[in-house]
Amino acid sequence: MPTYGGWTGKTLRVNLTTRTSTVEATLDKYKDFWGGTGMGYKVLWDEAKGVTDPFSPDNPLIFGWGPLTGTGAPCGGRTCITSLSPQHPYAAVASGHMGGHFSAEAKYAGWDGIIVTGKASGPVYIAIRDDQVDIVDCPQLWGSGIYRATAEVVAAMGGSCQVAAIGQAGENRVAQSVIMTGYSHSAGGQGGVMGSKNLKAIGIVGTGSIKIAASKKDWRALVDNAMQLVGSNNQAVVPNSPQPWAEYVSSARWYAAKGKYWGAANPPVETGTCDPHDRQSVGYRCFKSDPGAFAEQFTVRMDGCHSCPVRCHQALNVPTAAKWGVDPTAANTCTGWWGRGLMNNAKVIAGLSTQDANLKTLEAYVVGKHMTDDFGLHNNYGTTDRGWAFIYGADKGVTWIKPNVPAAEWTTLNAPGGLFDLYEKGDLNFLMAFGKMMAYQVGELGKFLAGPVEAGLNKWQTGVPGVTTGSPGILAAYHADTSVLWWANGFPKHHSPENGGFVGALINTGYNRDAQNHCWSNYLSNGLPTAVQRTIADAEFAKNGYMAGMGAAIDPNNTCTQMNQQKAVAARWAIARKELMDSTGLCSWMWPWIASPLKERGYAGDIALESKLFSAATGKTMSTKAFDDEGVKFYTLQRALTMRSFNSMHMRVLHDQLPPWAKVENHAGAVAYMGANYYMKSADWETALDLFYAELGYDQATGAPTRATLEAMGMTDVADELDDLGLLPASV
Amino acid sequence: MSQHPAPLLEIGEDIGAGSAAGKISRRDFVKITSITGAGMFACTLFGSVPFAAALKTPILSDAKGVLLHDISRCVACRRCELACSEFNDGAASAYLARVKVGRNFAAMKGSPAGKAEGRAGDFRMQADTCKQCPHPVPCAEACPKGAIRSDSKTGARRVDEKLCVGCGVCTRACPWAVITVNPATQKASKCYLCDGNPECARACPTGAMKYIAWTDLRLTTPPVQPGIMADPSTTAYCAPCHS
Ligand code: SF4
Ligand code: SF4
Ligand code: SF4
């Protein structure tokens, strides 16, 4: 019997080149860099030296989760997939995240993580039944979509099997591709890496168990406590409409109400008032209907990930969608419904009655979901749809697309029944045509859309040699377009200055893709009045060893005030927690819980809850402060990996820049810090970086971690290697 | 047809494993021989299992309560599985859990299994729960050690770990496949209604899982084909009523 809990103690390593699998001792090998991204970064640091091609067999693909995965710690169903990223111009490290039940099943099968290396000689899937690991040839599945691949693996392995698979997009090494599990949970960016390894799917059946180190009584009390503090989607703690128990009303994502039904349930289910003390209505709170209120009558139920009571995925049954050749049932959430956004709404509903327009719009959600999820396409937080809208423009692509595709392609696109024709007619067949073009990289337009928009723009700037003339100025025009939501790292902004001013901006500098970090933005959007948020933040952070007055870090959404020390602390805390969520297995879309829905607590949550759950599950006691330091350590290794890929230590100028639209100087007549906008002064941004780097122990001139910082974190080897590569800032 | 007459024995009074015929009291014997109504179901279930001499006493009076799972409300979160295994076994496990949800995720489009009711193909998800079957209780009938008995508090069909040898016969006899042998303890593990405070129902965030007064729920979810009917010693015991 293990002397620890939470972990299974074993990590699986599969070498597809040699078709062998080996077992590593998790707590031995991944003791200092543990869990989803912790282990992921460590494997990449040790094993991806000098790798610049993300599709090389030498790019490890790491499926990671953590000690809370598969346990009753609420909202713990995430899988974190890390590799060198095909979406990044320097193939810098990035992670994609998917929910569902895949990682829980993997834990039950006895695995703390799965590291896939090499490349199979032909299409295979990995079949994991507890200890038994088989590499199964599957040429018959190559070329099929995710749905069929998943169904076939389920047919082979049984109904309890959980599958992660790629579609045609991943097979064809499309950068904008996903790995998907459970019909609606997808991790963006790594599909092509899986495809480059000839790995179609991983199927897992697990019949084991995960020991909890704490006593049953203590664990139950802790889980109960967490279930009392949980809110709704994104840890919203205030309902969206007046409720008998509620002091406040807000626009937060807590939509349940009397008279609001899962209309397609049989019989229909009323979501109701959902008093926060009622344990048996937590699962009704969210009822987030992304397609709008009209879709409520088509909702069978809400769905979501393993162990999560919140349920942010909406499961629809729209019978009339079948006329577009797709299954009428579809589930997803947020930008997972992105296919719909590719079409122009006015064109989709032109000439229709309100009822027919609503229905067709909803059908478009269903068709779009099936298109993206079966081909396995990723939109990188809306970049693909916005990029498409940008290049197609108001002139049907004449300005930006025409000069960049061969004449014959342009003719095909404009022909009757061609892509542009379908788009103009609002014909939902456009969606499948678009997806196919992307997944198979058809023509120059297909190639453009299959990659990150920024990469495509760079190419179109000069044109395809010998084929097209290109569009000088396209990049500048794109960056100047405020509707494309572009961040300075070439990826979309994701809760940037509009959610937290300087804190949001600093968080957005952290990654080599869009920042999938909701630790701070969730709090700002939880529905509580700002004054209450500040009071709670003052107390919660101080209680856990942070500086006094952390409420001063809070800027209400869509505003920005002057930088201060608290904001640097908040940004550090948020980047630490994001890594910790990825590495414990908890959901960064829900955790941490600074606030709760409980009035009797003054709406306070508990920012020590994750470390308490970690300690209780594993038996390794960790204070909140020590826990957060672990997160900073993981982040710092990610930073070192980034520097190695950039072959530069100059993160400050190459990586951590603010996009022009965030600077007040670029908005004539705008005044900063007065509550009217979220823009900041350029000079203050430099101050913000100084304070942020100081918090992290990074060199101010370069934004790189110093030797002293690396050594204090136990990363002398990393410091040495950076030094050898000439990437370590000079000691002061 | 599924209800037998008034309880044959009081809850907790059921006759234990290893009981020889001689230990059955006259009062019990009179009760047993007066059964008529249960015959149809029992005969079908037992088929023609060979008569054997050893006797065991599987007649269990009805449980007081049972879990009722509402397929329209279930959101497939599996918190019931987690509560059952963590709070009863101290370990998180879909396999150990006495309520089974995870195995019904054959949700994928195109997977024939997913098309069955409650297998999530149309998103409706069935949690498989113990029906606390009325006499004849398939798992108890099958147990060669008579280790499945009625709990003194709730009447739940409960594994007596002292008697259970972990042979797994019950797991194949249960028509809903809701018994598991715990590999760590080598003891069968089945729903015992948590002494009347079911953790799964308490943990369910939608109220899909409810604890209700016992009623016969055996027709609400289709059984799987049980692999084993009854232990020979049981059928011998049953012969006086069902010959
Ligand atoms: S375990 Fe199966 S056979 Fe036994 S009482 Fe429960 S449902 Fe009936
Ligand atoms: S009542 Fe108790 S033993 Fe039975 S399934 Fe629920 S949690 Fe498990
Ligand atoms: S806890 Fe409730 S909603 Fe969740 S899987 Fe179990 S029965 Fe369904």
SS-derived structural category of chain B: alpha+beta
The Rg value of chain A, from CA coordinates, equals: 24 Å
Q: Which series of helices and strands of chain B comes N to C?
A: HHEHEHEEHEEHEH
Q: Percent helix among the residues of chain A?
A: 25-40%
The helix-and-strand class of chain A reads: alpha+beta
Sheet-strand content of chain B, in percent, reads 5-15%
Q: Roughly how many Å is the radius of gyration of chain B? A: 18 Å
Segments of chain B where pLDDT lies below 50 for 5+ residues? 1-10, 15-55
If you had to describe this structure to a student in words, what would you say it looks like?
- The complex is a heterodimer of chains A (732) and B (243).
- Helices cover 36% and strands 11% of the residues of chain A.
- With 732 residues, chain A is of the alpha+beta class.
- Chain A has 4 domains: 10-205, 4-Layer Sandwich (Aldehyde Ferredoxin Oxidoreductase,  A, domain 1), CATH 3.60.9; 231-341, no CATH class; 381-488, no CATH class; 495-724, Aldehyde Ferredoxin Oxidoreductase Protein, subunit A, domain 3 (Orthogonal Bundle).
- In chain A, the strands form 4 sheets. A 6-stranded mixed β-sheet of chain A has the order 2-1-6-3-4-5. A 6-stranded mixed β-sheet of chain A has the order 8-7-12-9-10-11. Chain A has a 3-stranded antiparallel β-sheet with strand order 16-17-18.
- In chain A, a hairpin with an 8-residue loop joins strand 4 and strand 5 (93-98).
- In chain A, helix 14 (429-439) crosses helix 15.
- The longest helix of chain A has 23 residues, at 624-646.
- The radius of gyration of chain A is 24 Å and the shape is globular.
- The N and C termini of chain A lie far apart (50 Å).
- With 243 residues, chain B is an alpha+beta fold.
- Chain B has helices spanning 26-33, 39-46, 79-89, 138-142, 169-173, 199-203, 232-238; strands at residues 65-69, 91-92, 148-150, 157-159, 180-182, 187-189, 209-213.
- In chain B, strand 3 and strand 4 (157-159) form a beta hairpin.
- Chain B starts with 25 loop residues before the first helix and ends in a 5-residue tail after the last helix.
- The interface between A and B is large, with 63 and 47 residues.
- Strand 13 (210-211) of chain A pairs antiparallel with strand 2 of chain B, so a sheet runs across the interface.
- The structure holds iron/sulfur cluster (SF4) (3 copies).
- Residues 67, 83-84, 88, 98-99, 191-194, 198-200 of chain B line the site of one iron/sulfur cluster (SF4).
